[in-house]
Amino acid sequence: MLRIGFRAHDFGSFDTADALGKRVAETRNPGLIQLALNKVMPSSRPWQEWDEEYISSITSGLKAHGVSVAIVGCYINPIHPDKEERKKEIERFRKSLSLASAFGCPYIGTETGTANPSGGYSIRTSDPANLEILKESLSQMLEEAEKDNAYVAIEAVSRNHSASSPERMRNIIDSFRTDRLKVIFDPVNLIPYTGIPEKDGVPLQVPSEEAESRFVREILDIYGDKLVAIHCKDYFLDPETGLKVGDIPALTGIFRWKAFAGELHARSIDVPWLLENHDPRTTKETAETLARF
C-alpha cells in the first residue's frame, strides 16, 4: 500500500505542534507530513533561533498523535541575484540540515530558484549561468549535509525555476558525486506549460496514455533512483489559453495517477506521496483512494 502524507500547511495555520498533529491524525493515522515550520505555525520561532531542544519539542508534539516528518520544507532561492541575500538563503537551509536529527527526518527540500528577487517568474532564470550559481549553492549545502548525516532534496519546476527540465536535473545530479543529493518528484510541476507533447510534438487537451507514460518513464530513467518523495496534485489545460493550470487537488484533473503508481511499482520505487493543494474537506477520501493504487 502506498504511503500517503500531506503538505502540512495545506491544513491551515496552527498555534502548536499538538494542534497540527491532532488535525493530521484526524485525516490519516499514522500520518506523514512535509513540514515547513514557519508556514504552518506562524507563531513559531524564527529559524535563526531554532535549536535541538526547540525542534525536538515540535516533533514530540507531532509524534504524540502518530505524525512524523517525511520532508522538511526549506524552500529557499539558491540562485537569488543578490549575493548577500543568496548567502542568507543558504544559511537558512544549512540551519535546517544541522537540525535534521531533531526533525527526525534527514531530507531537507527546496526548489531550485529564480532570477526574480521577489521569487516570481523571470525569463532570465533560464540563462545557463544560473545553473552554475545553483551548483555553487548546492556545494555549500551538500557540505553541510555531509557533516550532519542529512540530504539535500531538490525539486524541478517547469519554466519557473533554474532546474526546469529533466535534462537540467540530469546536468545538476551528474555534477555531484555524492549520495547526499536527492530528488522530490512532482510530475505536475514538470509538465510543460503547454502540455505533454505527443509523438508529433503537439500537445492534446488530454494527453494520450502513451505520451504521458513516455513523459514519466523518461524522467524516472534519469533520476528515479534518487527519489525520496512524490508531490501529488493535479492539473488541466485551460481550454481558452491552452496553458497548464497545475494547482488543483489530486484526482480532480487529468493526470493518470494510477498508471503512475504502476510505473513506480514496476521499478520498486517506494517513497512517500505527499498531497499538495489538497482540499481538507476531501483529503481523507483522496488519500484512501490513492493508497489503494
How many angstroms separate the termini? 7 Å
| Relative strand content | 15-25%
The CATH superfamily bears the name Divalent-metal-dependent TIM barrel enzymes
What is the highest CATH level, the class? Alpha Beta
Radius of gyration: 19 Å
Q: Biggest sheet, open or closed, and with what strands and sense?
A: 8 strands, parallel, barrel
Q: What is the H/E string?
A: EHEHHEHHEHEHEHHEEEHEH
Number of helices: 11
Mean pLDDT: 97
CATH architectural label: Alpha-Beta Barrel
In short:
By secondary structure, the protein is α/β, with parallel strands linked by helices. It is built from eleven helices and ten strands.
Walk me through what this model shows.
With 293 residues, this protein is α/β, with parallel strands linked by helices. The protein has one domain: Divalent-metal-dependent TIM barrel enzymes (TIM Barrel), CATH 3.20.20.150. It is built from eleven helices and ten strands. The protein has helices at residues 17-27, 37-40, 52-63, 83-98, 100-103, 129-148, 166-174, 187-190, 209-223, 257-266, 283-291; strands at 4-7, 31-35, 67-73, 107-111, 151-155, 181-185, 227-232, 234-237, 244-248, 273-275. Strands 1-2-3-4-5-6-7-10 form an eight-stranded parallel beta barrel, surrounded by five helices. Helix 1 (17-27) runs parallel beside helix 3. It is globular, with a radius of gyration of 19 Å. The N and C termini lie close together (7 Å). The mean pLDDT is 97.
